[in-house]
Amino acid sequence: MSENKLRIGYIPLVDAAALVVAVDCGFAAAEGLDIELVREVSWSNVRDKLNIGLFDAAHLLSPMAIASSLGIGHVRIPVIAPFNLGLNGNAITVSPRLHAALAKLADGDLTDPAVSARALMRVVEAGKAGGAEPLTFGMTFPFSNHNYQLRFWMAAGGIDPDEDVRLVVLPPPYMVESLASGHVDGFCVGAPWNSVAVEAGVGRILHFGSEIMAQVSEKVLAVRTQWAADRPETLSKLIRALARAAEFVADLSNRDVVSIRVAQRIEVDSDLVARTLAGHLRIAPDGTTRNDPRYIRIGGAGANRPDPVQAAWLYAQIARWGQAPLTPELHGTAQSVFRRDLYDAALGAPPATSRNGPSDGIGAFAGPDFVPDDISGHLAAWHIMRSGRPRLSIVR
Amino acid sequence: MRKGSRPPSPGAPSPAAQRDSTLKIAIVDESPIRAAILADGLREAGFTQVERIAETHNLLARIYALDPDVILIDLESPSRDMLEQMFQMSRVVKRPVAMFVDQSDSASIQAAVDAGVSAYIVDGLKKERVTSILDLCISRFNAFSRLQTELEHAKGALEERKIIDRAKGILMKAKQLTEEEAYALLRKTAMNENKKIVDIAQSVITAAELFK
Predict the structure, then answer these.
(1) What is the mean pLDDT of residues A33-44?
(2) CB A313 within 8 A of CB A92
(3) Any CB–CB contact under 8 A between B65 and chain A?
(4) Which residue of B has its CA nearest to A52?
(5) Is B99 within 8 Å of chain A by CB?
(6) CB–CB of A151/A165 below 8 Å?
(7) What letter would DSSP give residue A327?
C-alpha cells in the first residue's frame, strides 16, 4: 500500500497545473496513487528534500535538474526527468520608467525582442555615459530559464549581462515589491507574477518568454535516479496520471474547473489562471493585452514528452554562461537526465509525425538554428559569453 | 594579560570554542524569537560574533557587509534561493560561499532539513569547526518547534476549557443543575456517544444559539 503513497514537492506557480489536476481531479487516484502535494517556498528546499528522500518526486526548474545531475552549484544528486510539466510560461516585465526609456530609444516596434534588446543597449550606454548605477534585473535561480532568457535577450542586443547590468536572484513573491520599490528595474519570472505586477500598476510586460524562445522546457517532474530504479511501477503510474491530467488541462472545455483547482492551490484569482493558461495577458496597467497561444503549454501536442533537444539547449546555456565547462562527458550526462524512454514505456511511443513547433525545436528570436550535436559550433556564433564563472550581483 | 593566556575558569568555554569565537555567524530567520534563542545558544557556546539579518530585500548586501564565516538560514525563508546565488559570485562576494553539506554524511543534512535549517559556510573553512555550530543549531531549532507545539497544545486546551465552561453554564441555567451535575451530564453523554466532551459541549452551545 505504501508503495503507492507519494509526497511531491511543488512551488505555487501556474506550471504546477498538471500536478495539481492529477491530485485534485482524481487522475492520480485512478492510477491507485495517493499523492500528498507539499508546497515549498524555495527551489533549494525542493532540491534538498528530494535529495534526502523527504519527497518522492518534485516540480523542478528544468535547468536545475540538469545542474543537480552535473553537480554544479551544489553536491551532485543524480535526478531524472521522465515527464515535462510545462513548456514556456515566463515573461520579462520592466518598470514603467525603464519602459519609457526603451520606447524613447527604440528604432522600431518594441514588441520585437531584437528592437527592445538594442534599445536596452542604448539605455545601458546612456547610463554608463551619465555615470548612473547599472540597471538591475531579478530572476529566480542561477539555473533557470529566467536567467538564461534575460541573458539571451540582452546579449542579442550587445549587452554583456555580467558586465553591463546586474542580475540578481529574487524569490518570485518578492519580485513585484522589488520592482515597486526600485530595487530592480525589471525581472523575468513565471506566471502569475508578471500579471500581478501589471495589476498592481508597477510593471509592464515587455516580452513573453515565448517571444525570446518559442519552445523551451520550463519545469520537469524530477525523481532521484535511484528512486526510479527502485520503483519503476510507481513511476509509470505517476507518468500516466500526469499525462492524463496534462491532457485535461489542455482541453479548453475544462478550463474553468482547471483554473479553479490551480487557483486554490497557488492562491491567486482563478480568472488570472484562466487568462494565463490561454496566453491572453494584460501587459500594461492601461489595459493593453497580448495574446500568444505558446505563452504557456502544460499539455497537448507532445508538450510532456522529454525532448533531448531541450536537454542539449539547456546544457548549452549552462556552458555559454560559464556555469559548467563544455565537454562531451557533461553533455552526455545532461542529455541522459531527460528520460523519454521512461515516458514512452509508461504511455507507448507516440506516432512519429507528432512533432511540431519550431524547426530546430527551440525557435530563438536571434542567432543561428540550434544544433544539439554541435553545441560548441552553435556557441561560436555568439560574441558575448562567459568562459569563467558567471558573475551575478548583489541587489542593493 | 593577553586574551588567550587566561586559564579556563569553570563554566568558561573550552579553549577550542574560544578559538572559534573568531568565527562570524549570521542568522537569517524570519522568526525573531527563534533567532534570539539560537543566538543565545551560540554565545553560550563561546561564539561571540553572532548577528541576525532580518531584512530580506538587501540580504546579500547585508551579508557582504557583514562578511560572515557561517550563515544559518531557516528553511521557511524564500530568501534561501538568494543565498544559492552566492555560490556563483566570484567577484562581488569577498570570499566564495558553499553550502554546508558533506556528501558522506547525509544523516546530518537530513537532521538539518528535518529541523528546518540550512547552513552555508565560507569555502575552505574546515568542516569540523562548523559541525558543533550546526549541531547546536539543529537542537535549538528542534527545541523551538517543541515549544511551539506545546504552546499550541496549551492554547487548544484553554479553548476547550472555555467551551466546556460555556456549555456547563447553559446546562446549569436551562436544567437548574449544579456545576458538578452539568459536567457529569456532559461527560456521560460524551461516553454514551463515544465522543469527546468538548464536542458535546460545542453541540450544546450550537443548539443553545439555535434556540435563542
Answers:
(1) 96
(2) no
(3) no
(4) B110
(5) yes
(6) no
(7) -
CB-nearest to B61 from A48, A49, A396 is A396
As a whole number of angstroms, the distance between CA A206 and CA A379 comes to 26
Which residues from chain A sit within 8 angstroms of residue B106, using beta carbons? 52
Q: What is the ipTM of this complex?
A: 0.86
Residue A206, classified by CB atoms within 10 Å of its CB into exposed (0-12), middle (13-18) or buried (19+), is: buried
Q: What residues of chain B lie within 8 A of the CB of A181, using their CB?
A: 57
Kindly report the CATH number assigned to the domain that includes residue A341: 3.40.190.10
- Backbone phi and psi for residue A22, each to the nearest 5 degrees, phi listed first: -60, -40
Distance from C-alpha of A84 to C-alpha of A217, rounded to nearest angstrom: 7
Q: Which of B31, B71, B80, B81 to mutate to test the interface with A (most CBs of A within 10 A)?
A: B81
- Smallest Cβ–Cβ distance between A394 and the set B60, B78, B110 belongs to B60
- CB of A11 closer than 8 Å to CB of A40: yes
Q: Which three cell numbers stand for residue A202?
A: 508597477
DSSP three-state, residue A374: coil
Look at residue A253 and tell me if it is in a domain.
yes
Sign of CA dihedral A171, A165, A149, A378: negative
For domain B151-210, give the fold: Arc Repressor Mutant, subunit A (1.10.10)
Residue of A nearest to B91 (CA): A391
Which CATH number describes the domain made up of B12-150? 3.40.190.10
The answer to whether B60 faces chain A, any CB pair under 8 Å, is yes
Report the C-alpha gap between A144 and A310 in whole angstroms: 13
Search chain B and give the residue with CA nearest A323. Answer: B88
Cell of A129: 555615459
Which residues of chain A have a CB within 8 Å of the CB of B58?
183, 394-396
Which is nearest to A202 in space by CA: A217, A222, A182, A174? A182
Q: Compute the nearest-CA separation of A252 from chain B (Å).
A: 34
What pLDDT does A388 receive? 59
Give the gap in angstroms from C-alpha A75 to the nearest C-alpha of chain B: 7
Question: To the nearest whole angstrom, how far is the Cα of B124 from the nearest Cα of chain A?
Answer: 15
Cβ within 8 Å, pair A168-B85: yes
Asked if A64 and A80 touch (Cβ cutoff 8 Å), the reply is no
Domain of residue A39 covers: 2-87+218-278+301-352
What is the average pLDDT across B174-178?
Answer: 93
DSSP SS3 for B159 = helix
- A116 in Cβ contact with A106 (< 8 Å): yes
Which residues does B48 contact at the CB level (< 8 Å), separation at least 6? B21
* Centroid of chain to Cα B22: 25
Q: Can you give the pTM of this predicted structure?
A: 0.84
Q: What is the pLDDT of residues B31-54, one digit of tens each?
A: 888 899 889 989 988 888 999 988
Grid coordinates 443553545 are at which residue?
A: B208
Q: Is residue A155 part of a domain?
A: no
Q: Classify residue A116: in a domain, yes or no.
A: no
B94 in reach of chain A (CB within 8 A)? no
Looking at the 3D structure of chain A, how many domains does it have? 1
Q: Which helix (H) or strand (E) holds B207?
A: helix B197-210
Confidence label for A286 from pLDDT (cuts 50, 70 and 90):
very high
CA distances from A88 to A153, A171, A208, A262, B72 (A): 15, 19, 9, 17, 34
- The arithmetic mean of pLDDT across residues A24-30, rounded, is 97
Residue A327 lies in a domain: yes
Residues of B in contact with A43 (CB under 8 A): 81, 84
